[in-house]
Every structure is written in structure tokens, then in C-alpha cells.
Amino acid sequence: MLKPRANVETTMSNLLSPVITGLGAVAPLGVGVPAFVAGLRAGRSGVRPLDFEHPRMKSRVAAGVPASVFDPRSVLDEADIARLPKLVPMALAAAREALGTAGLMVEGDLETSRRVGLILGTGGGGIDFTLDQYAAAYSGKNASLWTITNATHGNLAGELSIRLGLRGPSWCVSTGCASSSDALGLAMQTLRAQNPESPTALEAMVVIGADAHVRWETLYAMELLKVITARDPALAGEEAASASRPFDATRDGFVLGEGAWAVVLERADAARRRATRVLGSALGYAATCDAFHRVRPDPDMIESARAMTLALDDAGLKPDDVVLAHYHGTSTRLNDAAETRAVKRAFGPHAERLIGHSIKGAIGHPQGACGLAAVVATLGALGNADAGPAAFAPPTINLRTPDPECDLDYTPNHARRLDGTAGVVALVNCLAFGAKNSALVLRGP
Description:
Mean pLDDT: 94
Radius of gyration: 20 Å
Order of helices and strands: HEEHEEHHHEHHHEHEHEHEHEHEHHEEEE
Number of domains: 1
Largest sheet: 11 strands, mixed
Number of strands: 15
CATH superfamily: Thiolase/Chalcone synthase
CATH topology: Peroxisomal Thiolase, Chain A, domain 1
Strand content: 15-25%
Low-confidence stretches: 1-8
Structural class: alpha/beta
Helix content: 25-40%
Oligomer: single chain
Number of helices: 15
CATH architecture: 3-Layer(aba) Sandwich
């Protein structure tokens, strides 16, 4: 049983930091934050055999969100479902849960609606809808009237703002796998910049990470890059649930995932006026670029480490203030080892004391949504999801064979109970195609 040190010095950055008051999740493990966090605690996997095949692809598994887990008709009617990409109903459900948790209801309140903005972080956006229209057009059928609006990521943010009645800024960030981390960083910076004395200042941002493109075209394209596992678990006598193996010596690529996660981020003074429950604070953010290669990280990982260091600087904290580290941990040979080197470079001797984990063994790699998935998992596990009796560090499941290149504490296979977690500091790390790095620093409730 671990008792993390939680007495972090209060700095001006801490005092100005926005607070998180709402969480939402639509995940392969289930709908709603309690179901998502309970699945993580139990070490369950949402990786399943595919229910389709194609002669061009070899993949046999994915971490999708099937209709048996989430019914889009719970938030949209049939006509709208047919007119929109798959991520929209999932994103809408996650955002509504987060707003409900925060107790921030804007319907019918014009002034409040103008003080709340929205940022969507997505990598693939409406690519599934676009591919369907391409297939329809080339088979002689009519493509959808909404082909262009759904193919333009920014319009998807507008779709969500319209349905949630939010009249503040409606933005979209698309930076590959770092999309939703960067979206939360942009929301932090936006709220920090507000003048609380202004009657028109923004008070909150709804931040959503969503991606949903588990289909043969995407899987085939990932196979061409050799970043995704194409192993057939059945032929190897293995369960589909074991296919994603972050930091394990037998890992051979990530499993494509999907889902939507959301947070409500508020100015601290606004949350105090509403007397709402604070689930955590967003203390620091930074992003860098390797300027090295479109899909491979720079082997020395200097810029990845610098992103973590800058995020800590932004939070006014030191490396040894961090207790929990939520790693990108995709389950690829290259990235898991490289990320381990980056963490050692950023944290020095303290790297060995971090309680680390990756949840991608449980949910696959949901691309641009993974940063928000990590944020919701981290804060939910610290006691905000009513999913169990005690705070815990989520496990990195399927980590059974140690890799000498990945030699940090990744909380293998079983959740770890945490005590004394008031104000515990956590880092969320992300890497992305395009040589991008993104890091967030959070504080628990």
C-alpha cells in the first residue's frame, strides 16, 4: 500500500490554474465514467475480435465501441445518426455526462451559454463518414449532402456546440494522437487569460477527445506503416484481450481503439461561486516538436523530455513533486522504449519512483482521444467516479514479460491502492505522428 507525498507548494501558477469539475466517458469498457473506471480497476480489456474482414487487411482485433456497449440512439435520432460521423454521438454523450457531473446546465440561460466554450480534440474526425461517401459515389449512388461539413473537423466541434447550446468559442484541435491533450492545454491557456472582473469573460470550457474509425481502410493503412499488431490471437492460442501489451517484451504494435472522453474545465473563481465539487486542477501544459520524422520519434527524445519539463515549469513544480505518470504507452516496439528514455531524461533519478501506467492494454489506442482518456482515467481513479472504495493507480494490463529497455514502474497487471492522495500530482504524456509531444500536469482533488 502506497502513501504518495501530496504536500505540494502552492505557487502563483497553482492559484491561477483552472479546475476540473466534470468528467465523461464513452469507452470500449463501458459508457459513463463509473463503468470506465471500474473496468480499469478490474483490469478488464475492451479489445475484441473484429466482426468484419477484408482481403487487404490482416488485423483481427480492435478496441471498438459496439452498439452493445453504446447505442447512439440514446442521444440522437435515426435521421441524425445517418447524417453524422460515428464520433459525434459518442462525443455528445461524454460531454453531457461531464456537464451533468459539473452541474453546469446552460439550456435556456443565454448569459451562461455565452460564458462556456467547447474544444474538440480529434485525429481522424469524420473520416469514416467521408470514406462511406467516397464508396457511395464510386458505386453510382448519391453521396450525402453533408459530406463536406463532416469531412471538415472544425464543423464537428460546431455540431457539438449547437447540440449542447454553448455560445462561447467552438474550436477543434487536430494534432494526431496529441489532439485532445493539446485541446485541454488550449482550454487551460484560454481560461487563464480571462479577466475575472469582465462581465463577458469566459468561465468554462467543455473539452472533448473523440475518435472513431475502426474499419478496414484505417486498419490496412496502419498495417502499411507497421505500427499496428496484425497478429491473429486465435492462431497463437491467445485471447484477443491480450493483443495490446504496453511495455511488454512481446509487444508488436498497437491495437486501434475508439471512444470519447470529456472534461469540464472552469476558472477556479467561477467554480467557487457555483459551490461545485472540484475533481482536480489543470496545473501545467507544454508541447514541443522533434522536427525529426513524420512517424518516428527522435531517438534521443530530447524534445519529448523537454515537453514534460516545460509542463512542470508551467505548473511551478519540480520533477519530484510528481507521484503518478500516465504514459502514452501504445504497445509499439519503438515508442514504448523511446518514451521510457524520455521519462528518465525528464525526471532523472525520480523516474524510478514514479507510479506509472498505460491504459492502452485495456482500451487500445483511441488516437486523438487518448490524452483525454488518460485525464479521465487518472482523475477517476483518484476517487471521482464512485467506482470503488479507494483511490488507485490503474494497471498496465498484459505486461507479463519484462523488457530491459522498458524498466520503470508501470503498475503491471493489477491496480495499486493509493492512500493519502489529497492533492496528488500526476503527469499525462502524449506522443504523436508529425514529431509532436504534449504533456499535462494535473492535481487530484
